[in-house]
Amino acid sequence: xxxxxxxxxxxxxEVFAIAAMKLLPEPVEVIRTRNREVLDEADxxxxxxxSHDPSSGDFDHHQRxxxxxxxxxxxxxxxxxxxxxxxARICGDAEVADAVEQTLVQPVDANDTGQQIxxxxxxxxxxxNVNGVIGGFNSRWDEDLNDEQERARFQAALxxxxxxxxxxxxxxxxxxxxxxxxxxxxxxxxxxRIIELSENVPWKQVVVTEAPEALFVIYPKRHGxxxxxxxxxxxxxxxxxxxxxxWAGLEQDELAKLTGVNDALFCHAKRFLVVASSREGIETxxxxxxDQDR
Length: 294
Hints:
Elements: E1 2-5, H1 12-21, E2 29-32, H2 36-41, E3 44-46, E4 52-53, E5 58-59, H3 78-91, H4 94-112, H5 130-135, H6 147-188, E6 194-196, H7 204-210, E7 216-220, E8 225-229, H8 252-259, E9 264-267, E10 273-276, H9 279-291
Parallel strand pairs: 1-2, 1-3, 3-5, 6-7
Antiparallel strand pairs: 4-5, 7-8, 8-10, 9-10
């Protein structure tokens, strides 16, 4: 597939759009030009051509009449237009594509279309984003690059964008898998106050928002098993129920003697985590923590 984009300075939206297409099985060749005849010979035109028509391979948003926006008000740039058409196919899963659309595609598009979705809280310090990183591959005002050097810069930006996109797809896939595991654990809990996970997956978002009765979560660690408190709200250190006060900061023999759990290993001084060697041991600690007063 021959994909054409404009020559000159490049931006994150077309770089990510082309990086996305390169994740498909079909080989991709990229040409950077504004020559109309050359553009017409390409199979796809990205961020150039003043037309948006997926059926003809046109994905541009610069035409005067273009006004496509998402329901949340974020306008479409070329990355979003490509992702809208090919995202589910690239990811192999529409839900994963939707997740990447929120975390990566929309921020890139918003920046390119001049929409502010974040701001600095400290005067004089500007947040770095992927648009700035990709833009940094362009020549500086005091650089005089030849055509070969410009192509090398574009290729380097394209490779970086491809790596970022691949990892974001992987993270979205992993995150959605974790959500399913946690939801299954919540649904299968014998005691709604204690959620037992089969794997050490991110759980706070789901448990805090979807399991209002949950107080503790059990999960396997690299060495043993952990029992962790459930926060009252996301982002807070205040818990629905702390671990017993007399456990705080104890380790091994002292903790084992106090709790009667021989393989108890450690309780954090802040009373949000206790560890044991066996699942049986951690389940016993969970029962004790549920029954004891604060």
